[in-house]
Task: structure prediction
Amino acid sequence: MLVFILAGQDELVGTGILFGILAIGIFFGRMRHVVRRAPLTARAPGRHSLTGGVLLAVTMVYVFVAISSAKGDFGAIPQGQLLSFIHLLAIGATTNALLAFVIHLSRRVSDPGLIHDVIFWGVNIGLVGFVTALTTDVRDLIFVFVPIMGAALLLAIGVRLLQLTGSPEAVG
Result:
């Protein structure tokens, strides 16, 4: 969809949206066995996969609404909304997918511990708060939610490195 906008092919934007919806349908179709067993309270890779997929769908809707409200003029979309889109896609969809993959690789899903809840909720609550701050232009919320998201991401990196390197005192 964005490729068509950037290429100046505004008449094909609807096709891009259709491809996006189709891609999300394929994603959930292929991930249904993981997503079905993934309540948000379960300490397993599935909850990151589910959250990443949902945030990917939210990103598609967000972009569609932003472009529609700007009457198709991509340049008229406020900078805060563009930054929100980028963070929804990068942190929301991609980081959650990567965390699911790394949890699966670390083979520590049987007893991951409370620290993994802190990572999951910190990343996603921080992201939602940050996107809300950018979208509503309430800049004071940025100073609350960015440190939450950033600390959770740094914690995730540290914990995953310890687990993947096989450290005897691996956090988990």
In short: The chain has seven helices and no strands.
